[in-house]
Amino acid sequence: MAVATNPASGSAVRRATRRLDRSALYIFTALAVIYLLLPVAVIILFSFNDPAGKSNFVWQGFTLQYWLDPLGVPGLPQAVFLSLLIAFLSTIIATALGTLIGLALVRYDFRGKGTTNGLIFIPMATPEIVLGASLLTMFVSIGGPPFFPLSAVTILIAHIMFNISYVVVTVRARLEGFPRHLEEAAMDLGATEWTTFWKVTFPLILPGIVAAALLAFSLSIDDFVITNFTAGKTQTFPMFIYAKYRIGIPVQVNVIGTIIFLVAVGTVGITTLARIRADARARRA
Questions:
Q1: Does the model's pTM come out above 0.85?
Q2: How many domains does the chain have?
Q3: Residue 131: inside a domain, yes or no?
Q4: What number is the average pLDDT over the span 164-174?
């Protein structure tokens, strides 16, 4: 005996299923974002905490006194300044070298290109503790300045080394699908290769370069494992936090972390807008 189906009922079920699918996607995305941002929210919240003792783990009350004196802990200004200096220098050097390597790997064919591609990923794939121990062994075996004794210079060398790989990968992603006809048009109009690079190529890949630089800066300023192996008696901001962990992390650490986070988010937002505008100009061209 055949059973008649109601077309209207089947359509309603399909619509309900589609709504559920869309809602599930939004809910999952919201939960993932909350999961990622929850630790950052705790850092920001406890930067306004007024703890009774040295430990900043229990909410005691709201205060702005630590925001008014964010470097008011002995040793913290020097550690923050050194971390910022090393991160800035390693970012500049690694971004310059990584951009040139990325251009070479995408634009040119040369002997050993495949090997170079493989070697670029080694620092990214190697566990940090192994990389740090290997760098320590190399610096000690060299046994002379600037590689030994360990200092801020050895930290800088190590950070440049592992940052280059991330810069190359990021810049290469930007160069894939690059509109080469714009460069050809510029050279047809009489521009030299150098002029074409600075007037056409560089502005279009600049958002990718900035993104790579931001990634390198973030990796450098918060690195602890490799830095701990290559620092010697030098103390960076992450090492300062680790040293204070046993006796109580001061609230100023949360303040500095919040400031770095806000600056990073603002810079990423500006970079994203610049990339969107560059892509729009490229499509119009």
A1: no
A2: 1
A3: yes
A4: 91
User: Side-chain half-sphere of 160: how many Cα atoms within 13 Å?
Assistant: 16
CATH number at residue 78: 1.10.3720.10
For residue 92, tell me if it sits in a domain. yes
Residue 144 in domain: yes
In a domain, 211, yes or no: yes
Q: Which tens digit of pLDDT belongs to each residue from 231-276?
A: 989 999 999 999 888 888 899 999 999 999 898 888 878 877 877 8
CA angle in degrees (0–180, nearest 5) for 154-76-146: 15
